[in-house]
Amino acid sequence: MKELVETIVKELVEEKDQVEIEESRNDGEVNIIIHVAESDKGRVIGVRGNIINSIRTIARSAAIKENVKVNIKI
Fold this sequence. Notes:
By secondary structure, the chain is of the alpha+beta class. It is 45% helix and 26% strand.
């Protein structure tokens, strides 16, 4: 799951070396925290949150295969 989100986020940002993804798993739940440069936060969030919502949708679709719930925060 972490690799999927990291691949998507790195394609969106300008400062790819500052992208950090934290993943923790607890009882069928995956929590992912995205860290990017301050100047790239808007690129990841998007207008009205459209991009981050799309990333969440993709991650949730992938989570169905693993039978887990996924939460993503920036």
